[in-house]
Design brief:
DNA-binding; Dna Ligase, domain 1; 2 domains; 44% helix; binds manganese (II) ion; Arc Repressor Mutant, subunit A; homodimer; 5 helices; 3-stranded mixed beta sheet; alpha+beta; binds zinc ion
Chain lengths: 142, 142
DNA sequence: CTCCAGTTGCGAATTAGTCGCAACTATGCA
DNA sequence: TGCATAGTTGCGACTAATTCGCAACTGGAG
């Protein structure tokens, strides 16, 4: 257990947002300035393997980065709004049941699950609805 | 509708495996040699936006690429075995119900869903089980 | 047949992620 | 305490994935 790993783990655990590698590096450096980018990548792989963190795409709303978050007791899924970029987190027993069904039917020993949903949040859907009413003839780009 | 787009769409539709951009480019070139890598990226973005294809990570078992497949009537999920690399596809009404619940509770207009699961397939789980029995004291890398 | 909005190829640029290796350090042991 | 060393790190160069600007091209409407 090195100072670098401690800083990275604490940063992820106390983070309020989903962190990509660049943000993770910057924030971890506030705790421990001697951290290198390569160490972040290596540690993230390590923690993924240990099942301590999950990796997310968040629908690639902001480029091709990956995001990381602590793995908590109950898995949650992520809803990403294509319009406003908002990320909604959501957990439900139905998801837990689905995982059990997947494991049972396929005889598969689940270690990680990742459910990401893209679409429009309620307010953005409402805005788009209103726009369509005002402009009944759709333009060439919908 | 250009020859390039036609070739790319047909290639994805008739593909038997999940295609990354490099494979997609190679296979599409067999139909239409005048295709450039940039066009593949641009077309893939287009088709994603139109909801004609889905993008997958497949747990990044083979590097950081993304994979593409035609979007069919019923969404299916992907199970990736960390040991042998096998990808299992699976569809179930429970997943469809979960999506409806997500949309209803969050008032979210779903356009894309992506459920990926990582773990061990049944045969790899059995092998690991046997290995543990023969070697009761676990090594430092479990 | 003409025209042009939209698409493409090209090649360079950017960005994310990886790697080899020498220097360093946590940790178990004398 | 100090030593040995397995494992970790920083560095910097590298690879791979993706994006971009722009001039040339083309599908298809008229
Ligand atoms: Mn989250
Ligand atoms: Mn990804
Ligand atoms: Zn929104
Ligand atoms: Zn397997």
């Amino acid at each position: 257990m090195t100072a670098q790993r401690r800083a990275l783990i604490e940063t992820i655990q106390e983070a309020t947002a989903h962190l990509d590698v660049a943000s993770l590096l910057m924030q971890a450096r506030e705790r421990e300035p001697r951290i290198n980018r390569a160490t972040v990548y290596r540690t993230v792989e390590l923690l993924k393997g240990l099942g301590m963190i999950d990796e997310l795409d968040l629908m690639h709303l902001n480029g091709e980065k990956h995001y990381y978050e602590v793995k908590t007791q109950q898995d949650h899924l992520h809803l990403a709004c294509f319009e406003c970029g908002q990320i909604i987190e959501f957990a439900t027993p139905a998801f837990e049941r689905l995982k059990q069904e997947i494991a049972a039917i396929n005889q598969f020993a689940i270690q990680v699950t990742r459910l990401e949903v893209g679409g429009l949040c309620s307010s953005c859907a409402a805005k788009k609805e209103k726009r369509l009413q005002q402009e009944p003839k759709p333009g060439p780009r919908g």
